[in-house]
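Loading example: each entry is read as two labelled lines plus one structure line.
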Amino acid sequence: MGDIQDQVNEAITQALVATAPDRVGLDRDMPLSTAAGLDSVQIMNLVMEIEDTLDISVPVDVLADTHTLNELAQELTKMVQSKAGGTSV
Amino acid sequence: MSLFDKFELLAQSRRALASDGPPPVATPFDRVLSATRGVINGQEVLLAGTNNYLGLTFHPEVIEKAKAALDELGSGTTGSRMANGSYASHDALEKELAGAFGWPSAMVFSTGYQANVGVMSSVVGQGETLLIDADSHASIYDGCRMSKAQTLTFRHNDPENLDRKLERLGEDAKKTLVVVEGLYSMLGDQPPLQEFVDVKNKHGAWLLVDEAHSFGVFGDKGLGLTEAMGLLDEVDFVVGTFSKSLAGIGGFCVSPHAELELLRLASRPYIFTASPSPAIIAGTRQALSLVLSGQHLRQQLKRNMDRLYEGARAAGFELGSEQPGPVAALILPNRETALDHWHQLLDQGVYANLMIPPATPNGLCLLRLSLSAAHTDADIDHILSALQGIRQQHTNQVAEA
């Protein structure tokens, strides 16, 4: 469980480095579109990077329902767990 | 606290574009004089920012048919296709569209936007998947939102990424509709359609091609990129619009699957809206006939595209597409430069489109020129000379600074 969370957080960091390097250190509890200053295109590019790293496909509505990077991390963790055949949360 | 507080960011963006001259977004036209001329703020301008690819909006036969239908059938149908809004002419247009593709079924929608929303929201449902290009038009995204299917995206024009996404879906790939466009209107680029077809066939997925900007433009009969690439036997749905090459307003879906007809009972954007007015249908039917036999129009458009692409590159502009097409997107370094270019071009009598984030992919700032078969060689010369002047002036300014 902890391992998967670390893996997800690391994937988010790598994706930020690749798509929005000036935002790498942002507060992951900030609302993405306003306080964190990422526009919808940047968020989408970010998620596509994460998909490649974690080898998962993130449905568009998951994005619509997550408002911070930490919320996104929770969703991604669930997806990686279910892919690995782990117990669902 | 106001319900409008959430629009403050949009209000800020609008203020940032404010200037003394005409606004670059939602630019008001005093009048439109022809397929290639209009009047903005009292000044006659060359229109290089419309979707009038074959220049048919003022074609005398289109106007004549539309006027006759107005006289004979009235101004509107006042009802849905499901109720009282199915006239013989709606049916005839559908048969003509289906016939052009050699397929059994076609459906007409009231707008192109509704065609995408209406098809995607109903063809793909619960437990199935929509797999769309990340740079898809808003109508494709909205169709996905309205569908009960899960929506996934693949990287723009990237068959390898599509392959990976389909691979992850396993058996569910067979219940997946892949969606691509024949021409992406922001950058003017085209998809590697053959590669996409190979990938979807490998996984047994379905394919929809939105030919909104490519219908009329590519292919011997003008059916779009799918026809031009010889891939009509490989796709499941083609969606298009009447509001570009067909010079009216409305949309359509054509399919080799006769079951498309069942959507008439299931597609909410088809059912719960009034059908297109008789004049629109009559004008579109005439325009369709001109498109199908419009090889000479496509030749002129191609000549215009090739000349504009070559000239813009020679002037030092970077373009959004390698391959020439009816849309030439000049990539500019930032919002201010793009805005400045837009105003300067208008000062020189050319109307183009300013395209800025969040409407554009990858945060690009674009000046978008779109071409028409109705543009003459002299029109293209005018556009190129204006672009060269602006480029020269801008280079000098940068050098001085």
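The interface with chain A takes residues 9, 134, 141, 144-145, 150-153, 155, 161, 165, 168-169, 357-358, 360-363 of chain B (CB under 8 Å).
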